[in-house]
């Protein structure tokens, strides 16, 4: 199964085979192209996908020592994402599948993310709870089995990654904000800046991060003029997000009776979040599973994997190459 991902600012291709696992995967990140604008510019993203995708597909075939004729199917990200960016992947994937006479399967990007931890050795059994934290989404999902998803909680405003990106901008840090904040937070003093843990004082599993951004803005006005102050704010912000996510994960596991948690999406690469969830798991006796770092952020391995599972489950693929920029899980 060839996987193709072009939903946002990463162009990616991967090859997955049910018997052998992940054969090859490659990602081209456009981060540097968008950095000057402080966020992703959709038109630039689409154009760069057009330029990079064919070479990436050839690259993974070469890495795996395969010809295109060996492919049994092509899985591509149908949505959600940027319409123009998605259409590049859709057109390429459908055309290649048509030419090779193999099925093309349109995949939900978030299904890809939440299955990514299962690409690792000793994957957890289902049912499980998935925490999906990326630049566009903050979801808690109950996964009863493959394709059986129930959203338990969602963000009512900003996504967790978006909060990292916006806070980074307030602190004068580059895009993407997550890694930059994590780095600056290392120099921050614990407890020096305490920010709210939004929506943890009432029941429920929804998230809200926009108020946190306002609290950061006030902290920057007060303390942001020197380097130590900015590091303290980065530290306080990261703690607030991590603690909020940990509280909701614990609640979701209690509420569903699940004993397994998987974490995915770009924010799932955050070392402090992993440390906190590992501690919680040890304390509460559940297991927690993460993808390797490069499969936390956008990639095509998760798309190829979801496609292979869908074909194995009897999905036939279709000729449709309409995209779904907004598409609930
Ligand atoms: O999953 P992803 O690559 O793209 C989306 O589908 O959104 O996630 C990107 C997001 C960005 O907001 C970025 O700031 C955040 O993940 N991120 C992190 C870290 N690495 C990436 N956030 C916190 N800590 C990190 N180490
Ligand atoms: Zn993503």
Question: Rounded to an integer, what's the Rg over CA atoms?
Answer: 20 Å
N- to C-terminal distance: 22 Å
Following the backbone from N to C, one meets helices and strands in this order, namely: EEEHHEHEHEEEHHHHEHEH
Q: How many domains comprise the coordinates?
A: 2
Number of helices: 10
Biggest sheet details: 5 strands, mixed
* Beta-strand percentage range: 15-25%
Find the count of extended strands (DSSP E, 2+ residues).
10
CATH superfamily of the largest domain: ATPase, nucleotide binding domain
Bound molecules: 5'-O-[(R)-(carboxyoxy)(hydroxy)phosphoryl]adenosine, zinc ion
| CATH architecture name of the largest domain | 2-Layer Sandwich
Shape: globular
What strand line-up does the widest sheet have? 3-2-1-4-5
- Average pLDDT works out at 95
Task: Provide the helix percentage.
Answer: 40-55%
Subcellular location: Cytoplasm
Cofactor: Fe(2+)
Binding site for Fe cation: 109, 113, 298
Domain Gcp-like: 22-305
């Amino acid at each position: 199964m060839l996987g193709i991902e072009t939903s946002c600012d990463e162009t990616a291709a991967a090859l997955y085979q049910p018997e052998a696992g992940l054969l090859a995967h490659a990602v081209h990140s456009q981060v540097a192209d968008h950095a000057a604008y402080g966020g992703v510019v959709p038109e630039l993203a689409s154009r760069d996908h057009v330029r990079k995708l064919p070479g990436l597909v050839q690259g993974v075939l070469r890495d795996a020592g395969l010809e295109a004729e060996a492919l049994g199917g092509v899985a591509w990200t149908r949505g959600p994402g940027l319409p123009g960016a998605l259409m590049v992947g859709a057109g390429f994937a459908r055309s290649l599948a048509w030419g090779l006479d193999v099925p093309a399967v349109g995949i939900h990007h978030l299904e890809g993310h939440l299955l990514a931890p299962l690409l690792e050795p000793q994957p957890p059994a289902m049912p499980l709870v998935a925490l999906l934290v990326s630049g566009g989404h903050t979801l808690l999902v109950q996964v009863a089995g493959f394709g059986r998803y129930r959203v338990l909680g969602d963000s009512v405003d900003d996504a967790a990654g978006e909060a990292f990106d916006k806070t980074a901008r307030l602190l004068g840090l580059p895009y993407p904000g997550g890694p930059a904040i994590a780095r600056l937070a290392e120099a921050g003093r614990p407890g020096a800046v305490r920010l709210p843990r939004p929506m943890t004082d009432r029941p429920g599993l929804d998230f809200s991060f926009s108020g946190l951004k306002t609290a950061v803005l006030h902290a920057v006005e007060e303390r942001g003029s020197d380097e130590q102050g900015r590091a303290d704010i980065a530290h306080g912000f990261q703690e607030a997000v991590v603690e909020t996510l940990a509280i909701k994960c614990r609640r979701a596991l209690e509420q569903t009776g699940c004993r397994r948690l998987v974490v995915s999406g770009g924010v799932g690469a955050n070392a402090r979040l992993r440390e906190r969830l590992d501690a919680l798991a040890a304390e509460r006796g559940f297991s927690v599973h993460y993808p390797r770092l490069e499969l936390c952020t956008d990639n095509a391995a998760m798309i190829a994997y979801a496609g292979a599972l869908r074909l194995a489950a009897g999905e036939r693929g279709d000729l449709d190459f309409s995209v779904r920029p907004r598409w609930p899980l």
